[in-house]
Design goal:
Largest sheet: 4 strands, antiparallel
Number of strands: 6
Radius of gyration: 20 Å
Helix content: 25-40%
Strand content: 15-25%
């Protein structure tokens, strides 16, 4: 089993949601099965054209996939929560996360326009990433598509 959230059979939706197997294009991916062969783990990927792709997964790759799944689960679970910042005097306190012993704190006042702009940038980044992943992009091409793709919103009342 890769992770409790996806089990040992990964469908196309899980592949895209958790950014699994980026070297395989999502458009061609049907489903994948992870199984143990002695000490090693193997991945059988069944493609849309009924072909089979077999890959050996090392422990480092599996650990990376598990860590990414955990991060994305945390992100997806926090995505639907309401903003806990209320009132017109909104503040963000930044701490030095690289140094646990640091007591340095920086307080920033945040206005409504900045919050809206930040939310827009987040939606834009997620939209561009999803489109790039659906197109089968990975690595540097994925990052370039996220940073230079086109995106727009039309709001109506």
């Amino acid at each position: 089993m890769l992770h409790i959230a996806v089990g040992d059979t990964i469908d196309k939706k899980e592949k895209m949601a958790f950014d699994l197997f980026p070297e395989l294009k999502s458009a061609n991916f049907k489903y994948g099965i992870i199984y143990s062969n002695g000490e090693t783990k193997k991945l059988n990927v069944y493609m849309q054209n009924n072909s089979l792709f077999v890959e050996t997964l090392d422990s480092v790759t599996i650990a990376q996939y598990k860590a990414n799944i955990d991060k994305l689960i945390e992100f997806y679970s926090s995505e639907n929560k309401n903003d806990s910042i209320t009132g017109s005097n909104r503040k963000i306190i930044l701490t030095n996360l690289k140094n646990d012993l640091s007591t340095e704190k920086i307080t920033l006042n945040v206005d409504e326009a900045s919050i809206k702009r930040s939310a827009y940038e987040g939606r834009k980044k997620r939209y561009l990433r999803t489109n790039a992943l659906n197109s089968g992009l990975s690595g540097e091409k994925l990052i370039n598509a996220e940073n230079s793709g086109t995106y727009g919103e039309i709001r109506t009342k």
